[in-house]
Fold these 2 entries.
Entry 1:
Amino acid sequence: MRSVALSITNEIFGVNTTVDWPVERTARRAARQTDGVLSDINFGEVFPFVAKPLSRDVLARYIGPMLGGQVAGLSRSDPLVLDLNPMAFVAGRPYMDLSAYINLPSIAYQLHLLEAVDRSKGRAIAELARAKRLNRVPIPVTARLRLHLAYVRMGLRSLRWLLRRRTPVELRDAYARTTERLRALVRRPLDRDEPSVLLRDLDREFTDESDPTKDGLRHLGLAMFLHTTLQRLCDGRIPPDLLDDLAKGIPHNPTTAVSLDLWALAQAARPLADVFEKTPPETLARALQTTEEGRRWWMRFDELLAQHGHRGEVELDLSAPRWREDPTFLLQTVANYLRHPAGALSPPAMLAEGQRRREAAAEAVRRKLPLPLRGLFTWLYERYVLWLPFREAMKYTWLLGLEQARRVYRELGRRLVAAGHLKAADDVFWLRQDEVRAWAETGTASWTQDALNARAREWREWATRRPPSLIVGTRGAPHAASPVARPPQAMVLRGTPVSTGHAEGVARVITDPHHAELRPGEVLVTRYTDPAWTPLFFTAGALIAEIGGVLSHGAVVAREIGLPAVVGVEGATSLIATGRRVKVNARDGTVELL
């Protein structure tokens, strides 16, 4: 991975300023290029952090090739996949290297999927690509032919999955088996293995492609295909509300299961409601241990952590603690659930109502469609219900693998402290991966404390800066269509409606879910959501997010439970203050500040 300082012009959202941003591009074919198009699309909602050096290397070594290989239809270790590794970093923040990614036919021929992920940036990227002004990373003609052949093979394989109704059922069982295997792995002690063995086992866990769940991104792609196909089939024929209802109450969603398990725990905690209300989450564990009833409840809570504790608020950041290490967010959520109004629908009732509405909507759509299209709709809809849970399944399962990586590196950090090479175990995240590997093989530390201090200072400085969401290198930088800049005092904000409905209430701006005290009925305003935020949805009156699209995690879950949601609302967290009353119209995508 080569680091260069790119002079980058942001030309997408009405701003035309040139800034020197430190950029790392991992695509080997892009190593000497000083231009390109980079975006936080696809990453913005799940990678909202400045990665420390070790985290950057893990993302580049494992996650980038996994993304590129699955979208290309090739093995993650294929040299062509490494040539086009889509992972990039701008001032330490994970970005997608679109100049590499656009070479893949799965992206080039399905640009509408980018818009499905994020309406505003996706449209701008699609326009750049269609105008052939995206500064592609050059590859040989033979490589382009290989990519097209792989795309055809992948399409035929996906068609076979789609035609065979047993496939998603068998995959669901495969995900369950892999999840249990990984749960056992993260319970295994690490202190008896040599450092080189720990790293070798970890590498094998990430690179082995024999497990069917390693095709998770392709499973997600099939769910996206079914979603967009249903939308196109019904466009202009079916009211948007009915289309939204088709995604409600989808069974087997592992992200929703976390919220239901938390709700059950909250009901068991009702006799302890005063303790939850009066005790800060940080000291709640200690307070509950003072009574027999509290200890019994905590035993049930430990069982939940054994199931779901591998998740976390910023869960793709290797250096961030998991719920198992710091359950503050979960305890705060239980406190939120205990405030749930007695007459309001509970989360299980919301999902049951969603399932009823989904089935009624499917029947209503059949009646409204012309007779020749009814059979096609039924065929697509049945498979949509089977495949949509895979929007969440891959991430839920393989976050256990990322937790194992965190465990391994922290164990090595403890050994480095004992050897006098680090001051604290978590300082291992300031190291580069090759430095850790060299020490594991030779026992020699190649870094100095001054170098680690410099990296920490750089990380802190980067954390105060926010690069543009879509950036274009200055060499041959194209102009893209952009929306008119909104006045700072605008009273009506606009975004993408992803879950229809109307709501009015007091806004609660939450940028750190670790201290997410969301009162029932409040409108949740945030930069992004990922699956770890889902428990908050059941107490929110509506969702407003700066980042996201119709198939983002937040949108899928919001539709499932009937929560009105508008995403892609630029500047929402700075333009809306906590306590401000807002009116959300999630039919036309407007947010009115009252």
Entry 2:
Amino acid sequence: MNKALFAALTALMMTLTVPAAAQSSTFNLGRGLDIEYSILKSLARSYVDTIDYTKMITAGVDAMLATLDPYTVYIPEDATDSFAMMTTGNYGGCGALIRKRTDGPVIIYEPYANSPAVKCGLEPGDEIWEIDGKTVVGETSDKATDRMKGQPGTDVKFKVFKGRTRDTVDVVLRRERIHVSSIEYAGLLRGDIGYVYISGFTEKMNVELRRTLESLKAQGAKRLVIDLRDNGGGVMDEAVKMAALFVPKGTLVVSSKGRDPKMNQEYRTAEEPLDTEIPLLVMVNSSSASASEIFSGAMQDLDRGTIAGKRTFGKGLIQSVVPTPYNGNVKITTGKYYIPSGRCVQAIDYSHRNEDGSVGFVPDSLRKAFKTKNGRTVYDGGGITPDIETKSSYYSRPVIALVYSGCLGDYALEYYKTHPQIAPAADFHLSDAEYDAFVEYAADKEFDARSAAEAVLDNLTQAARQDGLYEQFKTEIEALKAKVQIGKREMLRLKKDEILPLLESEIVVKYYYPGSGRVITLRTDTSLDEAIDKWIASK
């Protein structure tokens, strides 16, 4: 076992161990470390096989933290790049989403606009078989990604099989600092409604958002929609700076409270606003969390904006990042956030949620009433309840399975290889013949095409067999199964209205880069349309 690890454990144990009579939390901690150290020492001395201590200790740390809350987690050294990417939106590399199977090449899936990948001619569907002269076959996606990343300004050499020309070429790519914008899409709806979809809260996002909003206003935007659906949050300070665009300087946006007195702080806007009058609609759903809830909750509490959609996730806990030995970090829950009315958005019971991640039922007896700036009543108990409730977009079971299988994206790559250009995103539509070609392609792929009814019936059949009842009801079960069972081709044609926008969106991003697919999905975004209609009618 690593001597440095033993020394560190010994030193920590000696520091924290106190006399047994004390029976304090410090004593209990020291006793636990003593037990753990003793077990590790015995394993190192006597265990029959070679031990991967890194794997075992990491698993132990993960299990230990799992007894606390879902957000206190250990981030080992090999995951720090991914963590930095989530908080800053930056990394050093090639600038492309990739796909990789262990037994195959790295496939360029979606290059980012103006990225090194684009500059050196890499396109969707291109296959990378070697990185710096070494094959990628047999490597995991993470391993290949690590080799593609590197310090900005350094070169990496690829052996590439071109998807369109079917030539094999050598490509030398100079890595750059890649910034993935949290502002996925911005444009005008219905002529004078500015619309911005924000996927996360990364560092300096507010600067880009200010420029985006200035551009939309210059184009004639008289109202503004901020779409935070499926936005899981990010850097809290960015939520405060985002709120600063819409409220007077010095406005309280959020406060924090924790065990450490240093956690008891108020966060007020420090910049001059962009526009304190433009009508504002904020779209949220059950996957809108953390910083998304701080911003939307503040806009609701300050009566600055109308919130629409579904109740948000309910994450109002503060995580502080503390460095650990050997270049890791531990993200520790150290407090809670409270929005201007005084309510906390944290779900009362964050361990039990609905299947879609939304807050479960909260009894009225556990909810407290608060007042907004203008005297409206709002409640705590978990998440932000919208002012305008809308129906969620519905996708049937086989369509969800089709998406998760990767079939839509794979077909989009094949489409890109055989279609040099397409219409602009706003004008792009697949013809009936092209959709039929997709049906033939997808029908041969592996995905669970069963309807919800068929899946339930399969479970019923299995339960009947286990209970010894199948033979008794076999005729009825099989007759019902014959009625609900449909083939893949029939299912793909039956669900065309659901599948077509998703497929068109996948194709569009191959030509016009990530974010452009939002143009397609907005065509059928009934939840957004409903929210805008009700919002305008209420004014």
